[in-house]
């Protein structure tokens, strides 16, 4: 490398931290950038980087009258989602990564990626992106630095995290920061690897420029490294939204919910209650990730480590998520959505029919007769949390918020009722551990097949899934006042193949039942597999749902459950010999209960 490049970088350094400076020198030596630029997080820097991205064609300015500060990015057509088969947990032994993760030995992974990174930034700028995950000054928070040759990543990290000099100021001369190295290389799937080194608090990501693969604070640090650190340090890093339910009397109950990718977290976190629930408000704390630990009061407390939303665009419309539409009115980077004639954005579900004169996500003229979507099914918006009119006031609270209920949910056409309350913590952990969901476009691969996705963490757990279950079970002893645990399913289908529950805003009715169960103020029906609301327990007023649809939505059918529990057992066997015995015993208990239960599935009434 031209030594001047590093000299110049050292001279403009935003820190005197030798650990940071040495690490940058080492990576600059390897990647050979033409320039090194420290990101301070300022407005001037945002303008400069945005102008540069536009010049390079990385960002396309949208209609600035309609969408001030908004830009469109079109990713490479082969680089549109997370790549789980190219994502590796690089622990010293394969056992530590466990049977659900792809594993590479650390020495092998470092060597392989070092070769790929050799000279990878020639002709490019290396951006030094310091960031904080979590509120500044919170005991929960973690500091990371990402070195990247993508201006799109630098600008997106600015939205998604508390990015800039403040992170380095907080770090001081400490060595306790997460080290991320990212190079797009030539965006070639054959040279694409996302490697995590939990023991070194390090991630190296090459060959992609897409979302969860490259915004290293998000899935890589906040979930994969985070879950590993959480186990070591007795806290939990979860793929969960966090919301506050405020009653008309002004009492707020906080709920965290884990749904797999593209299964409704952002929508649920921004729910607008139906008219019937006048005076009720849902406040968003987070829409994707929760870091939770036990507070001095013995409750479980959560923060959202992120500062923005990287949300799914398709399906976001004025009916489904009006709040999200307000989020993306300004200062938003869109990826792989379609563009209208007048430089606005469009995606399937924004309006009933595509406007004429659309440009599709590839940048070609859109032909509605093609049968293909105009926006990629995993197209996304990246918007600052401060755009959210219903952002929780507690968003920067260093202590976070106390969690009263944990909710697990998947996309299941059959079997799983609208809502189910667990009998106790172990049963709740069992519900999370056996979660299944039909696959979506958020990851590459076949869409629509049921796969087990424990706690929605299958792609994000940074260590052995069996040990992760143990960690969940062991947390019970550390939480004197644990949250109640529930399971939901917005996606059950009737005999005609359509959803039996309308979902979206009407999910408020289920949320209200959950909150009331926590407060102990509403009844339910005990079934062999948990508690469900009876028809009168759920407030259905002001909505049109046929009684048989409600019965279908909440039905617990022994025949379906016997098969479900059998399949859950099959999944557990794939985790042997790491499965905790408590969960297998819970499974057997549920199976016996189902076998003994009332054949009509009606169970007992309290
Ligand atoms: P990630 O960002 O990938 O983690 O996804 P997410 O869990 O935040 O999912 P999101 O809220 O973006 O929703 C994904 C898709 O599910 C969208 O197309 C929504 O329209 C759809 N969806 C969300 N909530 C509901 C619901 O209650 N019912 C139905 N039928 N669909 C829903
Ligand atoms: C997910 O897939 O769960 C996401 C999007 O939230 S990504 O950041 O690409 O992982
Ligand atoms: Mn997610």
Describe the protein in words:
The protein is an alpha/beta fold. It has 17 helices and 29 strands. It is globular, with a radius of gyration of 24 Å. Helix 3 (43-55) runs antiparallel to helix 6. The termini are far apart. Residues 599-606 have low confidence and may be disordered. The longest helix has 17 residues, at 217-233. Strands 1, 4, 5, 6, 7, 8, 9, 10 and 11 form a 9-stranded mixed β-sheet that branches. The protein has 3 domains: 3-56 and 83-234, Phosphoenolpyruvate Carboxykinase, domain 1 (3-Layer(aba) Sandwich), CATH 3.40.449.10; 238-306 and 395-555, Phosphoenolpyruvate Carboxykinase, domain 3 (Alpha-Beta Complex); 308-387, Beta Complex (Phosphoenolpyruvate Carboxykinase, domain 2). Helix 4 links the parallel strand 4 and strand 5. Residues 239, 261, 288 line the site of manganese (II) ion.
Q: What is the strand tally?
A: 29
Q: Name the average pLDDT.
A: 95
Tell me which CATH architecture of the largest domain applies here: Alpha-Beta Complex
Overall number of domains:
3
pLDDT below 50 for ≥5 consecutive residues: which ranges? 599-606
What is shown here, in short?
It contains 17 helices and 29 strands. The chain is α/β, with parallel strands linked by helices and 606 residues long.
Give the topology, please.
Blueprint: H1 3-11, H2 18-31, E1 35-38, H3 43-55, E2 60-61, E3 71-73, E4 87-89, H4 94-97, E5 102-103, H5 106-117, E6 125-133, E7 142-148, H6 151-160, E8 162-163, H7 165-171, E9 178-183, E10 193-197, E11 202-206, H8 211-214, H9 217-233, E12 236-238, E13 240-246, E14 252-258, H10 265-269, E15 281-286, E16 290-294, E17 300-303, E18 308-312, H11 322-327, E19 333-335, E20 338-339, E21 345-346, E22 380-384, E23 401-409, E24 419-421, H12 425-433, E25 436-438, E26 450-452, H13 465-478, E27 484-488, H14 507-519, E28 525-527, E29 530-532, H15 547-554, H16 558-574, H17 581-596
Parallel strand pairs: 1-6, 3-19, 4-5, 4-10, 7-9, 9-11, 14-23, 23-27
Antiparallel strand pairs: 2-3, 6-7, 6-8, 10-11, 12-16, 13-14, 13-15, 16-17, 17-23, 18-22, 19-22, 20-21, 24-27, 25-26, 28-29
Helix pairs in contact: 3-6, 12-13, 12-17, 16-17
The structure holds guanosine-5'-triphosphate (GTP), sulfopyruvate (SPV) and manganese (II) ion (MN).
